[in-house]
Amino acid sequence: MAVAEPLAEATALVGLPPPVAGRRSGKARRLRRLAPPLAMAVVVLGGWQLASSSLSGGRQFLLPPPLAVWRVGIFDRQSFDALLPAFGRTAELSVVGLLVAVVLGMASGTVLYRFHWLERASYPYLVALQAIPILAVAPLMAVAFGYTFVTKLIIVVMIAFFPIPTAFLLGLKSVDPGQQDLFRLHRAGWLTRFWKLALPSSLPHLFTGFRISAGLAVVGAVVGEEFFQTGAPGLGMLFQQYLNYVEYDQLYACLLVSCLLGVAFYSLFTVASRRLFGSWHASAHADEPAARRPGR
């Protein structure tokens, strides 16, 4: 032990990784990441059960207990047969809308970064686009495009679009000025500076926008399906049907499944961001001790 402690201090001072014996196992790291969400899930489910039990006078149907939602809303064969294909349709609409929002958002962010005058001229209108009440313009879109998949897709894109160009533009403009001067010193053109400097530096901000838009895409898909009650049912249509027939067990199951879809999209972008730049960006090591972070 007398030799191990000075060795660990010396390796930390020169920036080398700590000895293998002092490293935390991968299983312990995964447990550390999973323990807080699992503990919070227990607290939420316990509070849900307590709130449901406190309802009286025949009002418990407004908030059925978690086990009833699981048993009637999900585990029941008939409910499951309706929920699974609806989940697939909502996931498909969310993915397509998110992809369109990503393409349009990155293209818009690039153009606004290239032409600063255009950013000053158009940014207020981008904010106004985000503030448009979707349910107010949905009837107009139905008249223009009909009750089709495209109309629902437009709603998803309108809701999920704004965080992507905003985060992307913030990342592009957050490049270190010294690095920009170095590229200019070597007479690098705008395209070279963008591709080799601004774009890699903006990835952490861009993936933050992706994570926000992923959840918004699910919201947009559910809202579009709930408003346009046409075609094969998705989660939004099921939600409205269960609400009309006062089938609250299935309604809460539908809500939980849509939440899980949003969490899955968010987690997908989180894992992708760690794979892409987790070895060099500080945000990927926020939950680690300072001595174990890169550069320490």
Explain what this protein looks like in three dimensions:
The protein is mainly alpha-helical and about 300 residues long. It has one domain: Orthogonal Bundle (MetI-like fold), CATH 1.10.3720. It is built from twelve helices and no strands. The protein has helices spanning about 5-15, 25-55, 65-75, 75-115, 115-130, 135-145, 150-160, 165-170, 175-185, 190-225, 235-245, 250-275. It is globular. The chain starts with a helix and ends in a 19-residue tail after the last helix.
Give the gist of this structure:
It contains 12 helices and no strands. By secondary structure, it is mainly α. The two termini are 23 Å apart.
Keywords:
296 residues, mainly alpha, MetI-like fold, 75% helix, globular
User: What is the CATH class name?
Assistant: Mainly Alpha
Tell me about the biggest sheet?
Answer: none
Helix content: over 70%
The span between the termini is 23 Å
Q: Determine the structural class based on helices, strands and strand pairing.
A: mainly alpha
Quick check: average pLDDT?
Answer: 81
